[in-house]
User: Which sequence fits this backbone?
């Protein structure tokens, strides 16, 4: 019985964690369109992924560039060279919250 309770707690904490993530304040919003690595299309700009770039899925897990969806609403940050250093795939709730802030 305690194993079931522990598993339920982990599942609940995972979904709660994804709802509590904080997106970078200076992140830019765009629609993501994958391109041939190491490039990525964000909005109408073709940008290069920085070495060591991190991509976070909607559950706040890091994923590799080859697991990017065909199209997604994202926010991203760039490094000093203008390369994309972090990408956050937005949940529908996060997209709605950002729309309301506009």
Assistant:
């Amino acid at each position: 019985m305690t194993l079931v309770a522990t598993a339920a707690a982990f599942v609940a904490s995972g979904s709660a964690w994804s709802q509590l993530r904080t997106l970078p304040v200076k992140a830019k919003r765009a629609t993501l369109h994958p391109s041939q690595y190491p490039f990525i299309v964000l909005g109408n700009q073709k940008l290069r992924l920085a070495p060591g770039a991190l991509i976070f899925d909607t559950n706040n897990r890091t994923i590799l560039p080859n697991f990017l969806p065909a199209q997604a609403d994202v926010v991203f940050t760039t490094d000093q060279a203008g390369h994309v250093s972090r990408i956050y795939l937005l949940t529908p709730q996060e997209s709605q919250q950002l729309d309301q802030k506009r």
